[in-house]
Design goal:
Blueprint lengths: L5 E4 L12 H8 L3 H4 L5 E7 L5 E15 L5 E15 L2 E12 L4 E11 L4 E11 L2 E10 L2 E11 L9 H14 L8 E4 L5 E16 L2 E13 L6 E7 L5 E6 L5 E3 L29 H24 L2 H16 L4 H9 L26
Parallel strand pairs: 1-9
Antiparallel strand pairs: 2-3, 2-15, 3-4, 4-5, 5-6, 6-7, 7-8, 8-9, 10-11, 11-12, 12-13, 13-14, 14-15
Subcellular location: Cell membrane; Cytoplasm, Cytoskeleton; Nucleus
Function: Plays a role in primary ciliogenesis by modulating actin polymerization.
Main location: membrane
Length: 370
């Protein structure tokens, strides 16, 4: 019998959206670009079964990227990619998450793909989350043999999602908490449950612990995250972090696989600029300094020689200055500057030529008219 495809829009059946606490909203608002910048790196872990066998891999990558809001506008954002590949009881299971998170830790788009590869019956769950204007749209599809057999679509108002942390943003928030070694107390966040409905989530610290990595014992900071679906058992995960935000171990309660690192990575250290040197002010008595005083005398003689040469090359200069000084002493004007301007004005090459004899009562351009 052929399976029929069904598509449902779940709005009437949607549970009531909870509200994040004030502390959670404030905590997210205080995470700045300088806090996230050291968290942009790649890391890889291996999946270990309960018997200690390697059954898969786990990798996380966070880097800067651009997100096209429309054809004319791009936005700087963080591109978060996480991939988990494990084989449990001979069945390959793959989970990939690709999300674009803004610098305000808001998720604008996220693709999640969960694949379980049975021999003759592969099943995939594909979830697409996209923010457009003031709505967050979610589409969840169950795919069997490349055919969608069930689709759920619904949306949320962004105004109701303050304090929301998607799986993509969660990886960034965990790294920031690990670097700070600080988890907000009694903060209630919002997130998706397994059905992509909005529920609450909380973070708690289990303190500093010791972890054996190869032949080395390292200090790790442990954070426990709990997702609280409505009327369901909470989903708890524990994350063990090195001091720079590298993940050293990840445990999902009830899962047969544990993610661990095989060797300690090179820790990321921030470049702290050296403080700007401060030089105290030193009083300089150049007259008492032989070298400076000698330089002063040399410069003085150089200027005097230059000035004397210029006067010798222009013999009209002493005569012109003598005429001006003689007329100045005869007239004794109150405004010496205006008198000098009127005296030397006719010598300017920019003024048009004038007659030799002009009227003595002609107004001067250098005096304001009353």
């Amino acid at each position: 019998m052929q399976t029929q495809k069904s598509e449902v829009t779940e709005e009437a059946a949607m549970p009531k959206i909870p509200v994040a606490s004030k502390g959670a909203v404030e905590f997210l608002s205080l995470i700045g670009e300088e806090d996230v910048k050291p968290c942009l790196f790649e890391e890889s872990l291996v999946a270990i079964s309960e018997s200690g066998q390697t059954i898969g891999t786990f990798s996380i990558s966070v880097k800067m990227a651009y997100y096209s809001i429309n054809e004319w506008q791009d936005e700087d954002c963080y591109l978060v990619c996480a991939t988990s590949k494990v084989t449990i009881d001979g069945v390959p299971c793959t989970t990939t998450i690709t999300g674009h998170v803004t610098k305000r830790l808001e998720t604008v788009e996220q693709h999640t793909k969960e694949s379980v590869r049975f021999r003759e019956h592969p099943v995939e769950t594909r979830i697409h989350v996209m923010k457009r204007q003031d709505q967050l749209f979610v589409r969840k599809a169950i795919v069997e043999k490349n055919e969608e057999i069930h689709v759920d679509t619904f949306s949320y108002k962004c105004s109701q999602l303050q304090g929301f942390i998607s799986e993509s943003a969660n990886l960034l928030v965990l790294r920031v908490m690990a670097r700070r070694q600080l988890v907000p107390q009694d903060a209630i966040f919002l997130t998706f449950d397994t059905e992509q409905h909005i529920c609450t989530s909380t973070y708690d610290t289990l303190g500093l612990q010791k972890q054996q990595v190869g032949k080395e014992e390292v200090d790790v900071f442990v954070i426990e995250r709990a997702v609280h679906p409505v009327d369901e058992i909470p989903l708890n995960c524990q994350f063990y972090f090195l001091s720079d935000g590298h993940l050293s171990r990840s445990i999902q309660i009830g899962s047969p696989a544990i993610m661990v690192i095989l060797q300690t990575p090179v820790l990321i250290e921030l470049d702290v600029p050296d403080p700007r040197p401060v030089f105290g002010k030193i009083l300089l008595d150049w007259e008492e300094d032989p070298q400076l005083y000698s330089m002063f005398l040399d410069r003085k003689e150089e200027l005097e020689a230059s000035h004397a040469t210029y006067v010798r090359r222009h013999p009209e200069l002493p005569a012109l200055l003598a005429d001006f000084l003689q007329l100045l002493l005869l007239r004794k004007p109150d405004d010496v500057v205006t008198f000098a301007a009127e005296f030397f004005g006719p010598f300017s090459a920019q003024n048009p030529p004038c007659r030799s004899f002009q009227s003595s009562d002609k107004p001067s351009p250098f005096r304001s008219r009353v």
